[in-house]
Amino acid sequence: MVTIFNRKELIVTMEMDRQSEVRNILSQNGIDYTVKITNLEAAPMIGNRRGVVGSFGINQDYSYEYKIYVHKKDFEKVTYLIR
Questions:
Q1: In 4-82, at which residue ranges do the beta strands (DSSP E only) sit?
Q2: Which of 10, 55, 63, 64 is the most buried (most CB within 10 A)?
Q3: What is the pLDDT of residues 35-78, one digit of tens each?
Q4: Sheet of 64-71: strands edge to edge?
């Protein structure tokens, strides 16, 4: 089980295809992982920025940030697998 106390950040990406590829590799090799997805369009204090200014001119490919974490003991093996 991957928790906040035993995890290590594997990758940070804004590409949905890349995070999907890495997650598939981890699943195929039986490696436990967690994913944190951040919507960069939502400002936590003000609310949804898109609701105020719209989405014109915003590249939707870069609206989300994906952070994938693995257990510290698996980190060396996983870095080799995802290259």
A1: 7-13, 33-39, 42-43, 47-48, 64-71
A2: 10
A3: 999 987 775 655 555 555 555 556 666 789 999 999 999 999 99
A4: 7-13, 64-71, 33-39
Angle at 46 between CA 45 and CA 52, to 5 degrees: 160
Question: Could you give the count of Cα atoms lying within 13 Å of 63 in the half-sphere of its Cβ?
Answer: 12
* pLDDT (0 to 100) of residue 17: 94
- pTM of the entire structure? 0.81
> How many whole angstroms separate alpha carbon 32 and alpha carbon 37?
17
| Residue 4: DSSP 8-state | T
